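Standup notes
- DV: blocked on the single-chain target, sequence here:
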Amino acid sequence: MLGRRLQRRADETRSVCERLESSLTVAKARAAASREHAKTAHEKAALAAERYRAQCHFLMAEKIAADQERPIEDLIERALRRKVIA
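- DV (later): unblocked, structure below
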């Protein structure tokens, strides 16, 4: 009798451990997916910010060119030589 109870208890404990391991695997997979999603979102945001900065620089150069009555290409070339536009 005692042997059967111990065996049953051992089987129950193994079953609980297997469920916990399965839950852990699922949680790790979800965490990895969340990290990847956050990384992708961060990269998209960085690219959008870079595009916005470039557009702002272009619009500023365009306005300066119009104010100075010079072709915008000249101003952009000069700015790039001075490394004003980052």
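- Follow-up: The first helix runs from residue 2 to 68.
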